[in-house]
Amino acid sequence: MSIDSDRDQVLELTQKLLMAATSGDWETYVELCDPSLTAFEPEAVGNLVDGLDFHHFYFKLPGGGDSPIQSTIVAPHIRIMGDVAVIAYVRLTQKLRDGAPITAAMEETRVWQRSGGSWKHVHFHRSPTGR
Q1: Per residue in 88-104, is it b (16+ CB within 10 Å) or e — as a string?
Q2: CA count, 13 A, side-chain hemisphere, 21
Q3: Are 87 and 76 in contact (CB under 8 A)?
Q4: Terminal alpha carbon distance of the chain
Q5: In degrees rounded to 5, what are phi and psi of residue 114?
Q6: Exposed, middle or buried, 50 (CB in 10 Å: 0-12/13-18/19+)?
Q7: Of the candidates 130, 108, 103, 131, which has an alpha carbon nearest to the alpha carbon of residue 121?
């Protein structure tokens, strides 16, 4: 595979992962993630999360009703290093709160590792943009 093809695939898989997370699609999320996924994210209040159990809790919560959620990847930078890929971007999340549209921004870095010919999500770091 070419570097450009790998970049396209990592961007596509990252978008698929975000769609799974915002729609509560646990099966797709698990399919894309390595079971030993690690993460630093605001919900973990400064702790490194290891494995999928922490994330599964959020998938089991009741949905946000009829409010659609859209995630947009802004200015992605993708680096391929053999069988490892790193994608860094700002994620804009649009949704309704009390009937009014709101947009939230997060800085995200995700690490993917190719194993057996397919990419698995192995680590991520999410931080508020401070804006």
Answers
A1: ebebebebeeeeeeeee
A2: 15
A3: yes
A4: 38
A5: -85, 130
A6: exposed
A7: 108
Domain ranges of the chain: 3-128
Query: What does each of the 131 residues of the chain score in pLDDT, given as a tens digit?
Result: 578 899 999 999 999 999 999 999 999 999 999 999 999 999 999 999 999 999 999 988 886 555 788 999 999 999 999 999 999 999 999 999 888 999 999 999 999 999 999 999 999 999 998 76
Class of domain 3-128: alpha beta
Closest CA to 33 of 59, 69, 7: 59
Dihedral of CA atoms 78, 1, 31, 14 in degrees, nearest 10, equals 20
Q: For residue 79, give every residue at least 6 positions away whose Cβ sits within 8 Å of its Cβ, in sequence order, or none.
A: 85, 86, 87
User: What is d(CA 43, CA 47) in angstroms, rounded to the nearest whole number?
Assistant: 9
For 41, the token pair is 């994210």
> Which residues is 126 bridged to in the sheet?
108
Rg for the chain, CA atoms, rounded:
15
